[in-house]
Amino acid sequence: MRLLAFTFALFLFSGPVLAGIKDKIAAVTSSGVVLVLDKEGDELVAQNVDQDFVPASVAKVVTAWLALEVLGADYRFKTHFYLDDNRVLYVRGGGDPFLVSEELAMLAPELVAVTGKEPFTGLVIDASYYPADLRIPGIEDTDEAYDALNSALAVNFNTIHAVRRGNAVRSAEKQTPITPLAVSQFRERGPKGRGRISLAQEDPSVGVRYAGELLAAFIEQAGGSVEGEISIGSVPENLAPVHVHHQSRPLSEILTQLMLGSNNYIANQIFLEIGAHRLGGPVSLEKSLKVAETIFDQHDIAEAIELKEGSGISPDNRFSTYGLAKVLQQFAPHAELLPKTRAGSRYKTGTIPGVRTLAGYANTSKHGLVPFVISLGGNTGKTRFRVLRTIERGL
Question: Of the CATH numbers 2.40.50.90, 3.40.50.300, 3.30.160.250, 3.50.80.20, which one belongs to the domain with range 78-249?
Answer without folding.
Answer: 3.50.80.20
